[in-house]
Specification:
With 427 residues, the protein is α/β, with parallel strands linked by helices. Helix content is 44%, strand content 12%. One of its GO terms (biological process) is medium-chain fatty acid biosynthetic process.
Length: 427
């Protein structure tokens, strides 16, 4: 009887197999969802006005109309692209050789930038310099900057890369102030140095993330800042800190977690300069106190750091005033040179609501184009077949391709006007 009861009992191994199969299916489902494996690849979404310039760019920049294909396994996850950029920067990053320049600012601060000479002749045979502003707390020694500079040099560009004030661990602050979200003083000093030292050179302005805000604000601040500028490219910026701050406190897309990590990094940089910023220094802002230092220790978001420390370098009365004044939002419509605004649809740091700003501008202004690939994360844009990314990214290639196209466009225009003048002279 006991034997027949054992035989009637369902087989346990079959039950286990079913559970295992369900677990594997669940894991696969999560992987497919997390890695967005079902997401299609497509050409970037473009917003622009139909004009002779736009038509020329579409013809001259294949990357604008071609599919951007990220690495197959993980490249469709904006989080992995962002994490890889944040942790590694780039793969097999080159070491371009440059000279560090030091500029004394009116308030005693020492601005530094690195200068890299071109390694080949430019495609139009002219002298062209890329003036580059990196992302938050970044500098010329970061791998993504080194990779981009090396590629630009090989395409005939001289490159000048700003080192954000206080970002280089080897350079001490010489005044009680460090870089902020929208201060253009150091970038402006670097550009003026380049214009003075190379009177024949023309400029291509490039900004990454926070650097995109700084370069756009700089150009819009005055018409004189746009002299000898061929074009401007901004990659992965958020356009309005005021509108972004609310989204940066949300857990959607893990933005609150990224906010915490970036705040932690900023804290370390500020505290590495605490003697100059918080020590007994007659020149330090009156409003920077020991209470601010203790609040800095407990800060868990960039907004808290901006409110307690950063806004006080420039004497803003509130965080709202600081974000309002320091964002490029109010300066974008004053830029008249060709302007390329690049974002990624899956950038976890830039909320989709902020993309209405570049879209609206591109619909109104003939000099502006907004480029939005489906993938790329925040400054990732890695390319590669299955698992391993290529050293060069889609972003590196697009910026250089766009700059080349604008250089050719300007040369064609000046050639046409020279011909017209010659013809009218003969008449």
């Amino acid at each position: 009887a006991r034997m027949s009861a054992m035989l009637d009992r369902p087989e346990l191994p079959a039950v286990f197999d079913g559970v295992k199969l369900a677990a594997v299916a669940a894991v696969l489902y999560v992987i497919v969802r997390c890695l967005n494996l079902k997401s299609p690849t497509a050409p970037p979404e473009l917003v622009f006005q139909d004009s002779a310039l736009a038509r020329f760019l579409l013809k001259s920049c294949p990357l604008l109309t071609k599919e951007y294909i990220p690495p197959l396994i993980w490249g469709k996850s904006g989080h992995i692209q962002t994490a890889l950029y944040g942790k590694m920067g780039r793969v097999r990053s080159p070491h371009p050789y440059g000279h560090r320049k030091y500029l004394t600012m009116p308030d005693g601060a020492t601005a530094t930038f690195d200068l890299f000479e071109p390694q080949s002749e430019h495609c139009i045979g002219e002298d062209v310099t890329m003036v580059i502003c990196p992302g938050i707390a970044n500098h010329s020694e970061k791998q993504y900057i080194r990779t981009f500079v090396d590629y630009a040099q090989r395409n005939g560009y001289r490159c000048a890369v700003l080192n954000h004030l206080g970002a280089l661990p080897t350079i001490e602050l010489t005044s009680p102030r460090m870089f902020t979200y929208g201060c253009t003083w150091e970038f402006g000093a670097m550009v003026n140095y380049i214009k003075k030292t190379y009177p024949q050179t023309q400029l291509v302005v490039v900004g990454f993330s926070l650097g995109g805000n700084i370069v756009c604000k700089y150009l819009g601040e005055s018409q004189a800042n746009q002299e000898r500028v061929l074009c401007c490219v901004s990659v992965c910026q958020g356009y309005s800190a005021l509108r972004a701050q609310e989204t940066f406190m949300q857990w959607d897309q893990c933005r609150r977690f990224y906010n915490f990590l970036m705040a932690d990094n900023m804290k370390k940089i500020i505290l590495s300069h605490r003697q100059v910023l918080f020590g007994d220094n007659m020149k330090k802002p009156q409003s920077l106190s020991d209470a601010d230092l203790s609040r800095l220790y407990t800060a868990t978001s960039l907004m808290q750091i901006d409110d307690n420390v950063m806004r006080k370098f420039h004497g803003y009365n509130s965080l709202k005033e600081y974000y309002e004044e320091e964002s490029c939002l109010h300066y974008l419509h004053k830029i008249y040179v060709p302007l390329l605004l690049v974002n990624a649809a899956d950038d976890p740091l830039v909320h989709e609501s902020l993309l209405s700003i570049p879209r609206a501008l591109s619909e109104k202004r003939e000099n502006v184009m907004h480029v939005l690939p489906l993938h790329g994360g925040h400054l990732g844009f890695f390319e590669g077949s299955v698992l391993f990314p290529e050293p060069l990214t889609w972003m590196d290639k697009l910026v250089v391709q766009y700059a080349n196209a604008i250089c050719q466009w300007e040369k064609t225009k000046s050639h046409c006007s020279d011909t017209e003048q010659a013809v009218s002279g003969q008449e």
